[in-house]
Specification:
The complex is a heterodimer of chains A (116) and B (542). Chain A has 116 residues and is an alpha/beta fold. In chain A, 42% of the residues lie in helices and 26% in strands. Chain A contains four helices and five strands; from the N terminus they run ββαβαβαβα. Chain B has three domains: 2-158, GAF domain (Beta-Lactamase); 177-292, 2-Layer Sandwich (Beta-Lactamase), CATH 3.30.450; 317-541, PPM-type phosphatase domain (Phosphatase 2c, domain 1), CATH 3.60.40.10. In chain B, helix 1 (14-33) runs parallel beside helix 4 and helix 7 packs antiparallel against helix 8 (388-402). Chain B is built from twelve helices and 21 strands. In chain B, strands 12, 13, 14, 15, 18 and 19 form a six-stranded mixed β-sheet that branches. Chain B is 40% helix and 24% strand. Classes of the chains: A alpha/beta (116), B alpha+beta (542). Chain A binds chain B through residues 1-5, 22-23, 25-27, 55-60, 63, 66, 70-71, 74, 87, 90-91, 94-96, and chain B through 36-37, 40, 162-163, 166-167, 169-170, 173-174, 177, 193, 197, 200-202, 204-206, 222-227, 259-261.
C-alpha cells in the first residue's frame, strides 16, 4: 500500500532533481511545486521529477505538475519525468503531459538528455 | 507614451492627452492578449503603466475569489493589500486615494470571472499628485487589462476543459484497468486494497479506509496512504462509503476529504458511481475466484472418484471362473462412477466356490470404501475355510468397526459344491435369491439374519441348504434391479416382476439372459436417470 508523501531534492549543476515517494495528491503536489518555485526563482530551468516511489498520482497532484511544466516551457526550460510506474505513465500519457514534458527511464538517462 | 509634458500641471489639455492614448490601446491589447499566464500579463501590463505613469511605482494584485486573500502578481512590497483594497465595490472600477494629498492610490478593476485586479500606485517623486485625467487613464488601462484578460480566461477554461475531459477518459480507463487487475488471480489478499487505492486516486480523495469485518473475528483495517492513523471518521459530509458482503465477511470502503486546489470539497455523484463500480468489480472478482476454486475442487474430487472407480473396477471380477457343468455370468452397472454394489464367484481350496452379491447402504466414495473393506475381509476369511455362519459373524464385526452408524451391507453369501450342486447360503438382510426349478417354480433363499455392520454382536445367522440340480438356475441381484424406476416413478418389480421374468425367460447362455434382462430394465426405465446400482449374478446348472 502507498505510503505518506515524502520528497527529496538534489542539484546537479543547473539541474534540479526532485524525487518523491508516496501519494502525489494536493499535499504532495504542493510540496513539489514549492520546492520547484524556490529553485525556479534562482534561475533553474532544467528539472527532473523522479516518481519511482510514487505509484499513485491524483489529478490535483497532477495539476501542480502541469503548472510546473507550463512555467518551465514559458521560460524556455524543460521537465523530464523518470522511473514511472506503468499506471502513472499511462495517467500522464492520457492527460497529455508528454506533449510538453519529457520522459526517461532513469535519472541518469534524463541527465544525459539535458547535458548532451 | 506619456511624456514630461503630459504629467499633471503641464499645458496640454486633458482630452488631447487621452485622445493620444487611444491609438496605442489596440497595440497594447494585442500584446497583453498573447500572455500565457496571469503573471506574464501582469508583468507586461505593469510595463505599460510604468511607461505612462513614469513617476509612480506600481504593484499589481489579483483576487481570485472576492472576500479571500490577494495574490501579488507584480511589483515590490506595497503594504497590506487588504487595507489598500478594502471596502470596495466589487462590481465596478474603483479608485481611491490612500492619503489626503492624492499621492498614493489604489485601483480595483473587476474581471470577467468575477475576480479582481488590484493596482497599488505610489509616487517615486515627492512632488507627484494624481490629476482627474489620471483617474480616466487608469480606468482605460483597467478596461484594457479586463479585455485582454478574456482570451487568457478562455484559454484557461479551454485548458481546464481539456484537463477535465482527459480526467474523465483517465477515470474510465482506470476503471477498465482496475477491472482487469482485480480479475487477475495473482493478487490474492491485496485485491480490495488495490481497489481502495484506485478509488481514492480517481476521486481525488485524500485518504481511504477499507474495513474487512468477519462474523466471529475482529475487523481488519487498511488505510491509503498507509499510515499508523487508521482512524474512522464519522463526519458524513467529508466521506463517501460503500460496502458489500461476501459470505460472512463485510467489505466497507470509505473515502475521505475530496481534494481541490483551493481546499476540500464535497464528493459528487460521479465519485460515488466510481467507488460503487470499483467495489462491484472486487465483489465480482471474489465471487469468480470462489467459483473457480470450487470448480478446481470439484475437478479434484472427480479425479479422486475416477481413481476410486478404477480401484473398484479391479475389485469387481473382470470375468467369472469357468465352472464345469455350469454357465455363470454377472454384471454391475453403477449409478455414479463408483458404486456400493459387489458380486463375485470365488473358487475355494476345497473345490467349492463362494457366490457373493452385496449392497452397501448409500453410494459414492464412502460406499466404495466399505465395499473394498468387505472384499478384503471376505477373501481373507474364505481362505480360512470358516463355516458360513462364522464367516458372516466375522464380517459383521469388522464391517461394524469399519463403518459409521448409517453404513451397513446387505449380502447374500453361498458356498456351492459344483460337483454335487449342494449349496449352503445365507442372506444378511439381502433380497431373496431365486432358485428356479426345472418346472419354473421358484424357491426363495432368504434364511440368514440382519445386514452386516448393523449390530456389533455375534448374531445367530441361519442358513439355507439346497441342491442345485441340472437344469436349475440361480438368480442373485441387488435392489437396484427391483427398484429401477421409470419417469412415472414406477418400480420395475411392481410393473414387470423380476420373479416372473426369471421364471419365464430362458436364454441360450447366462450372459445373454442377463443382457436381455438389462435391456428389459432399460426399456422400462426409458429416459429416467438410473436411481441405484444394479448388480446381477446368474448361474445355470447344465
Amino acid at each position: 500500500m502507498e505510503q505518506e508523501f515524502t520528497l527529496t531534492t538534489e542539484l546537479r549543476g543547473d539541474c534540479l532533481i526532485i524525487a518523491t515517494a508516496g501519494y502525489v495528491n494536493n499535499v504532495g503536489g504542493e510540496s513539489i511545486a514549492r520546492e520547484f518555485a524556490g529553485h525556479f526563482e534562482n534561475g533553474i530551468k532544467k528539472v527532473i521529477v523522479n516518481l519511482g516511489q510514487s505509484k499513485v498520482v491524483n489529478s490535483i497532484g497532477l495539476s501542480f505538475l502541469i503548472d510546473i511544466v507550463d512555467q518551465l516551457n514559458d521560460a524556455g526550460g524543460k521537465l523530464i519525468f523518470t522511473n514511472l510506474d506503468p499506471a502513472v505513465d499511462k495517467m500522464l500519457t492520457i492527460m497529455g503531459l508528454f506533449q510538453f514534458a519529457g520522459k526517461e527511464s532513469s535519472v541518469d538517462d534524463a541527465l544525459k538528455e539535458f547535458f548532451v | 507614451m506619456r511624456t514630461e509634458s503630459d504629467i499633471p500641471g503641464t499645458t496640454q489639455r486633458p482630452m488631447e492627452r487621452l485622445a493620444g492614448q487611444i491609438g496605442t490601446f489596440q497595440d497594447r491589447f494585442e500584446v497583453l492578449a498573447k500572455a500565457l499566464s496571469l503573471k506574464e500579463m501582469a508583468r507586461l501590463f505593469a510595463g505599460m503603466l510604468s511607461s505612462h505613469f513614469q513617476e509612480i511605482e506600481i504593484t499589481l494584485f489579483h483576487n481570485a475569489i472576492p472576500g479571500k486573500g490577494w495574490q501579488q502578481l507584480f511589483g515590490g512590497a506595497a503594504g497590506d493589500p487588504g487595507e489598500a483594497f478594502g471596502s470596495i465595490d466589487e462590481r465596478r472600477f474603483a479608485m481611491r486615494y490612500l492619503d489626503g494629498e492624492q499621492r498614493r492610490a489604489s485601483v480595483v478593476q473587476p474581471l470577467l470571472d468575477r475576480s479582481l485586479l488590484g493596482m497599488f500606485l505610489s509616487p517615486r517623486k515627492v512632488a507627484f499628485r494624481f490629476a482627474e485625467e489620471d483617474k480616466v487613464s487608469l480606468q482605460l488601462f483597467g478596461q484594457l487589462f479586463a479585455s485582454a484578460y478574456q482570451p487568457l480566461l478562455h484559454r484557461r477554461n479551454e485548458k481546464e476543459l481539456v484537463f477535465s475531459l482527459n480526467h474523465r477518459v483517465l477515470q474510465l480507463n482506470s476503471l477498465i484497468d482496475t477491472g482487469i487487475e482485480v480479475s487477475k488471480l495473482t493478487h490474492e489478499g491485496s485485491l480490495p486494497q488495490l481497489a481502495l487505492e484506485r478509488a481514492a486516486s480517481l476521486t481525488n480523495a485524500s485518504r481511504g479506509v477499507l474495513i474487512v469485518s468477519g462474523k466471529d473475528q475482529p475487523a481488519e483495517r487498511y488505510s491509503f496512504p498507509a499510515s499508523d492513523a487508521l482512524g474512522v471518521d464519522n463526519d458524513s459530509e467529508r466521506r463517501i462509503q460503500t460496502s458489500f458482503q461476501f459470505f460472512d465477511t463485510t467489505y466497507t470502503f470509505q473515502l475521505y476529504d475530496k481534494e481541490s486546489r483551493s481546499g476540500f470539497i464535497v464528493f459528487d455523484e460521479t465519485d460515488r458511481l466510481l467507488l460503487d463500480a470499483l467495489t462491484r468489480q472486487v465483489h465480482a472478482s471474489l465471487e469468480n475466484r470462489y467459483l473457480l476454486q470450487e470448480a478446481i475442487d470439484k475437478q479434484k474430487i472427480e479425479r479422486d472418484i475416477a481413481v476410486a472407480a478404477s480401484i473398484q473396477q479391479r475389485i469387481l471380477p473382470e470375468s467369472l471362473p469357468a465352472l464345469t457343468g455350469y454357465d455363470i455370468f454377472g454384471t454391475n452397472i453403477p449409478t455414479k462412477s463408483v458404486g456400493g454394489d459387489y458380486y463375485d464367484c470365488i473358487p475355494l481350496a476345497d473345490g467349492r466356490v463362494a457366490l457373493v452379491v452385496a449392497d452397501v447402504a448409500g453410494k459414492g466414495i464412502p460406499a466404495a470404501l466399505l465395499v473394498s473393506s468387505f472384499h478384503a475381509y471376505l477373501n481373507a476369511y474364505l481362505e480360512n475355510s470358516l463355516p458360513l455362519v462364522k464367516l458372516a459373524q466375522r464380517l459383521n464385526s469388522v464391517i461394524c468397526k469399519a463403518s459409521t452408524e448409517d453404513k451397513f451391507i446387505t449380502a447374500f453369501l453361498a458356498l456351492l459344491d459344483p460337483t454335487t450342486g449342494r449349496m449352503e447360503s445365507l442372506s444378511a438382510g439381502h433380497n431373496p435369491v431365486y432358485l428356479v426349478k426345472r418346472d419354473r417354480t421358484i424357491q426363495e433363499l432368504n434364511n440368514g439374519g440382519v445386514a452386516l455392520g448393523m449390530l456389533d454382536m455375534e448374531f445367530p445367522f441361519s442358513t439355507d441348504e439346497v441342491v442345485v440340480e441340472p437344469g436349475e438356475r440361480l438368480f442373485l441381484y441387488t435392489d437396484g434391479l427391483t427398484e429401477a424406476m421409470n419417469a412415472e416413478q414406477e418400480l420395475y418389480d411392481n410393473i414387470r416382476s423380476v420373479k416372473e421374468f426369471v421364471s419365464n425367460k430362458t436364454s441360450p447362455s447366462a450372459k445373454q439372459f442377463i443382457q436381455e434382462m438389462i435391456a428389459d430394465v432399460r426399456e422400462f426405465v426409458g429416459t429416467a436417470p438410473q436411481a441405484d446400482d444394479i448388480t446381477v449374478l446368474y448361474l445355470v446348472r447344465q
